[in-house]
C-alpha cells in the first residue's frame, strides 16, 4: 500500500480582492506502511494543509492524492470506506479532538461501529480494550469510563492514537500530535507510535516543528518552505548533509538532543 501526493497544490481564495494564498505548491511525496516520514518547516509553510489533503479532508486545487495508484477524489462507496479506514488522522489534542462529555469507551466504540470493525457490546468492548492496551493504557478496563478531563495530556493523546489504531489503519497522518506534551511524556507517546510501526506495520506522516523528535524517530524527512517541498530524503542524509541553506538554518535552530536516560 502506498499513499502518494503527486504535485498537489492548494490555494485559498484571498479575502476582499487580496491575492490568493498558495498554501501548498506542487508538492510530491509518498509514505508506505512501516515508514516514518517526518514533515518539518516553519510556521505557515503548508504542513497542515498538505496533511489535510492527504487525509482527503479538503480538496486539492491541483495534482492528485493517490492510494495504491487510485485518485482519492474519485473514490466512492466501498473504495472510499477502505481509504477512510486505511488512512487515519491523529491531531493535536488541545484542538478539541475529544469530546469532553464522552467517556473513553464511547469515543472509541463509535468509530468501531462506524467502520464496522465489530458489532455487539461484548465484541466492541473487547476491541476498545485491545486498542487502549496497544497504546500503553493498561489495563484498558481502567480507562473505559473516564472522561477526557480525567486523563493526563499524554493519556489523552494515547486515547486519540487508540481511536485511530482501532480501525486497523495502514497509515496515520499525525499533525503536531505530541507537540503540546512535556519532554518525558512526549518520549513515551513517541515510543508507542514507533512501536506500532514495528508491531503492526503502521506508516506515519508525522508533522512537527520539533527537530529533536525527528532525529529520534523518523526514517525520512521532508522539508517545506512557503508551500514547497525544498528538500527530502533519508533522515541521516538530511541531518548530516543538508543541501539547502534553509534546512541548515532550521537544523541549527534546533536544540541539542537530550542524552538518552
Ligand atoms: N482555510 C484557510 N483559508 C485561508 N488561508 C489558509 C487556510 N488554511 C491555511 N491557510 C494559509 O495557508 C498557509 C499554510 O498554512 P498551514 O496551516 O498549512 O501551515 P503550517 O505549516 O501547518 O503552519 P504551523 O506550523 O503554524 O501549523 C498559511 O499562510 C495559512 O495562513
Ligand atoms: Mg500546522
Written account of the structure:
The chain is an alpha/beta fold and 261 residues long. The protein has a domain at 3-97 and 171-253: P-loop containing nucleotide triphosphate hydrolases (Rossmann fold), CATH 3.40.50.300. Helices cover 37% and strands 24% of the residues. The protein has nine helices and ten strands. It has helices at residues 47-54, 77-86, 104-114, 121-134, 153-165, 183-200, 211-217, 235-240, 245-253; strands at 3-12, 21-31, 36-41, 62-67, 70-71, 87-91, 171-175, 203-207, 220-225, 228-234. Strands 6-7-8-3-9-10 form a six-stranded mixed β-sheet, with helices on both faces. β1 and β2 form a beta hairpin. It starts with a strand and ends in an 8-residue tail after the last helix. 39% of the residues are buried. The mean pLDDT is 92. The structure holds adenosine-5'-triphosphate (ATP) and magnesium ion. Magnesium ion (MG) is lined by residues 47-48.
